[in-house]
Amino acid sequence: MIRKLLLKNAACVFALGFTLACGFLMVEQSRAATAREIDVSADVALERFYKEVKGAEEFAKNAKGLLILPGVIKGGFVVGGEYGEGALRIGGKTVDYYNIVAGSFGLQIGAQKKDIVIAFMTDEALKKFRASQGWETGVDGNVALLDIGAGERLDTTTLKDPIVGFVFGVKGLMADVSLKGSKFTKLDKSK
């Protein structure tokens, strides 16, 4: 009897978590930002990145391209979802818009909002990213996530990874800052 009750409750928790995650993603997708809104948000996030991470501005100048994803939202209860939209900039100018979508399953509860900057350090890595129909971290390429603590400086001379990611400005109750399994898809913002 107890086992039957536990299985029933587990199924309810799973269904609730799945429903919340799907609803969360649908609400975010239905509220897709305009190109102008994304550019303004990306400007603000990039400015914050330069202020919070010492040496970030010099580092960004060495990158072949920067994908700036401001205000990426993640939420979950057993089943989680993540969504955000951002701008790919080359030479300081926006060339394309992308979204990030990720799903997860496991012990998790809460929500968070964060900014992400992904720096493409080689022409080859940038070209492969732009040519893909849906680029997935860990499958199509690896992103070296850097954790720069308060007072530390970003050292561009020791970084040799072709793709480097930064997660900053995290607000919320979830502690996960991984990009593993995140999928990036080019958006059509020409309308």
Structure commentary:
This protein has 191 residues and is of the alpha+beta class. The protein has one domain. It is built from 4 helices and 6 strands. Strands 1, 2, 3, 4, 5 and 6 form a 6-stranded mixed beta sheet that branches. Strand 1 and strand 2 form a beta hairpin. The radius of gyration is 18 Å and the shape is globular.
Which helices and strands occur, and which strands form pairs?
Layout (H helix, E strand, L loop, with lengths): L1 H29 L4 H18 L3 H7 L2 E26 L2 E28 L2 H9 L3 E2 L7 E3 L16 E10 L10 E5 L4
Parallel strand pairs: 4-5
Antiparallel strand pairs: 1-2, 2-5, 2-6, 3-6
Overall 3D geometry? globular
| Strand/helix succession | HHHEEHEEEE
Helix content: 25-40%
Largest sheet: 6 strands, mixed
Strand percent estimate: 35-45%
Q: What is the number of helical segments per DSSP (H or I, 4+ residues)?
A: 4
| Structural class by SSE content | alpha+beta
Record keyword descriptors for this entry.
single chain; 191 residues; alpha+beta; 6-stranded mixed beta sheet; globular
Summarize the structure.
This protein is an alpha+beta fold and 191 residues long.
